[in-house]
Amino acid sequence: MRRSAAPKPHKREGIWYLVRRVPKEFAAFDRRCLVRISTGVAVADDPRGVRARDAVQSLGAGLEAYWRRLREGQSAEAGLRFEAARKRARSFGLAYRTNEELAAGPLDELMARIKLLLDKKSIEDAQDVSAVMGGEKRPAVRLSGLIKEFETIEQQNLLAMSPNQIKKWRNPKKRAVANLVGVIGDKEIASLTRDDAIAFREWWQKRIVEDGLDIGTANKDIGHVSKMLRVVDLTHQLKLEPVFRNLRLSGAVPGQRAAFTAEFIQEKILAEGALDGLNDEARHLIYVIADTGLRLSEAANLTTETIHLDREIPHVRVRPNGRRLKTGHSARDIPLVGGALAAIKLHPDGFPRYRDKAASLSALVNKVLASKELLPTSEHSLYSLRHTFEDRLTAVEAPEKVIASLMGHKWIRPKYGAGPSLAQKREWLQKIAFTPPGRM
């Protein structure tokens, strides 16, 4: 709902009142044209309306909350009725059509549906008639309810995610919808127009020019909203116009992820005392990532079940283990050498402080590295250790298949057999292993 001017108190029979006209977006749920609510403050006791203004603002906020609850409750009930009718229509072998859609369509289809009800002897069954003849309107989903609706539809994709992964999945969508609502208001998705979409695009263009924001962020917002609308439209057969199609902004430059030099890592980051000030788990995770190339989340989520120090070749296994891996190729076994082996020996059960909290690990380590001038440029970060790992393997001319296997990347050829063995991978890792500081 668009922000309106703060309501002012009105005098009525010696009492200050809140007087509000029901906004158009709530008119279907509250049939009153004008709402009057007493503040209980007498004009004689508050002639300038100072106390009454505070009371009116509080009553106004409560009234708006009431309207929203009313809308959400009725919308939810209508949505359930619609879904029941749609499923019932399928049981008749029909695609659901509202009665307005049937009336606007071919007469033959309308007559065929009536004949079906007669043949099935369902003409007296109100639910069957509603399903076949389109008695329920399509659900009115508002932008404020779009994420919830999308999440309900996509729930099977969330089952494998950890709580933190779900949060990361949800947050950019929440940001995109909040930005859109801030530009055009909390409209029903069925009433969105191309003008609304263009207004959102122009709003982002202005922010990019005036505030120096990233084009990629704007395109992500547009992409998230467009995808959610497309999925909800497909599921509920809303027949929405693709108003966000082809609105992505041009000029986005792919981010260049920097890598440290091997010498910088060994001589600066792994120098004795260089990481003092970091807690043990964070410091030792740096050693693990540097010598395994693990993604931050993969290293932070190692557990007793995925750490194998007692094997002939000590190694860690990257597996879902309560969370979804980034890609299907991410599952892999990585031998432990150098600083990674030394660090894992100190943490045979993993790093519980940062389990499912890779973002916290990244924020802390990057802050400390920056304060100690251990980030050569603004493009460098903790994640740069992974890029250095790949560069180092390339420098010693490791086979591409070995590099892909260690990085968790897709191999360019069809996969046959088990891939490089632990012994083969350890052979190449030993060529690039760092020497950890004497005082771990």
Task: Tell me the layout of helices and strands.
Layout: E1 9-12, E2 15-21, E3 34-42, H1 50-91, H2 99-104, H3 107-119, H4 126-133, H5 146-153, H6 155-158, H7 163-184, H8 194-211, H9 215-236, H10 262-269, H11 280-292, H12 296-300, E4 307-308, E5 315-318, E6 332-335, H13 338-346, H14 358-371, H15 384-395, H16 400-407, H17 422-432
Antiparallel strand pairs: 1-2, 2-3, 4-5, 5-6
Give your account of this protein's structure.
The protein has 440 residues and is mainly alpha-helical. It folds into four domains: 9-73, no CATH class; 88-133, no CATH class; 143-236; 262-432, hpI Integrase, Chain A. It has 17 helices and six strands. The strands form two sheets. The protein has a three-stranded antiparallel beta sheet. A three-stranded antiparallel beta sheet has the order 4-5-6. Strand 4 and strand 5 (315-318) form a beta hairpin. The protein starts with 8 loop residues before the first strand and ends in an 8-residue tail after the last helix.
> Taking Cα atoms only, what radius of gyration do you get, to the nearest Å?
30 Å
Question: Mean of the pLDDT scores?
Answer: 89
Output the number of helix runs. 17
How would the global form be characterised? Answer: extended
Helical content band: 40-55%
In the CATH hierarchy, the architecture of the largest domain is Orthogonal Bundle
Q: How does the helix and strand content classify structurally?
A: mainly alpha
Quote the CATH topology of the largest domain.
Answer: hpI Integrase, Chain A
What strand order characterises the main sheet?
A: 1-2-3
Largest sheet: 3 strands, antiparallel
Tally of individual domains:
4
Spell out the CATH superfamily of the largest domain.
Intergrase catalytic core
Number of strands: 6
Extract low-pLDDT stretches.
none
Quaternary state of the chains: single chain
Distance between the termini: 56 Å
Strand content: 5-15%
CATH class of the largest domain: Mainly Alpha
Element-level helix/strand string: EEEHHHHHHHHHHHHEEEHHHHH
GO molecular function, one term: DNA binding
Protein name: Integrase
GO biological process, one term: DNA integration
Keywords: DNA recombination
